[in-house]
Amino acid sequence: QDQLVQSGAEVKKPGASVKVSCKASGYSFTDYQIQWVRQAPGQGLEWMGRINPNTGDTNFAQKFQGRVTLTRDTSINTVYMELSGLTSDDTAVYFCASSAGFPFAYWGQGTLVTVSS
Amino acid sequence: QSVLTQPPSASGTPGQRVIISCSGSSSNIGSNTVNWFQQLPGTAPKLLIYSNNQRPSGVPDRFSGSKPGNSASLAISGLQSEDEADYFCAAWDDSLNGYVFGTGTKVTVL
Questions:
Q1: B interface residues, A as partner, C-beta within 8 Å
Q2: From B105, which residue of chain A is nearest by alpha-carbon distance?
Q3: Among A50, A91, B8, B66, which is most exposed with the fewest C-beta within 10 angstroms?
Q4: A103 to each of A12, A24, A106, B49, how far by Cα in Å?
Q5: Inter-chain touch B90–A104, beta carbons under 8 Å
Q6: Contact check, Cβ <8 Å, A104/B35
Q7: Are B98 and A49 a contacting pair, CB within 8 Å?
Q8: What would the pLDDT profile of A82-92 be if each residue is shown by its tens digit?
């Protein structure tokens, strides 16, 4: 069964960085892109960027350029999203989603990142 | 910063048909395919429709999508209580070089 499992909730102080992991199983990890999407409390969905797990190639929404880093470890089928310079506006649930077969076909359970002093 | 516009809410009684619109532009919906997602409270979004009108396996045929021009729509036929959720559209935007999502529509079953 194709699935994505994300790391647990994080609480960070303003100015800090957070790194969220997304482990894939049940399909060929390097064959499909993984997207990152976030959702602030009570708000809609916002695309952050994506990574090709095979090549490591990335592209990002302009809003996050220079502040988000996507990496992967093919030995453990895991993608990482690191967001730096956190502010209270970054408090949100962060989702990874695999494009295995269809765009955004499978989603992780989400990781709540809370930024608070 | 949603680029795609959806009505904030829609409602219907059980068995009715509800249609949700998603308005975009030539750089996104006008030139790329549209995907639709359902999000139940406290859960991750679920892909309902891809490539404008295709359903992944397991999605009931009560859900259908269409894409006339620079807009798209999601129809829910035979509305059921479990359809009460938030619905989002999404498409690639050639100008922004990234995906854009709709503002979201909350469907209520009366």
A1: 1-2, 35, 37, 44-47, 50-51, 54, 56, 88, 90, 96-104
A2: A44
A3: B8
A4: 31, 15, 9, 10
A5: yes
A6: yes
A7: yes
A8: 999 999 999 99
